[in-house]
Amino acid sequence: MSDNQLKSSVVESINTYFSLGLWDFGDTFYFSELAAFLHNSLTPDVLSVVIVPAQASSGFGSLFQINSSENEILISSATVDNVEMITSITAEKIKATGTVVVSSDTASTNNTATVTSTATSSSSSSSGGYY
Fold first, then answer.
1. Cα dist. 23→9, 13, 16, 45 in Å?
2. What is the pLDDT of residue 95?
């Protein structure tokens, strides 16, 4: 599958997720639910999905929960231009703030543990003009 086909599939799945018949006024958006939906819809082509705000004033994690008012309903405005294919998740790519730990070594008297976080492929997607 080409990158453009995959981007189109991501947008189609996002639009399906945000179908008006599936949402009520005042519903809360949880990114974890969208990510699970995308993983189920796009397996095995998508390995990981992250949502990154387009606004410079927002950081990673600011879009994990979006509350709507009683008179608001959430819809998608995602386009293929909002979907970016990346080969690894880095602090710069996800607009992380603060210290980002990608590996740590912990030593005690008898053992040493190493934790390393890596990703092989991902796609970021969103709704509401974010990417």
1. 21, 15, 11, 27
2. 64
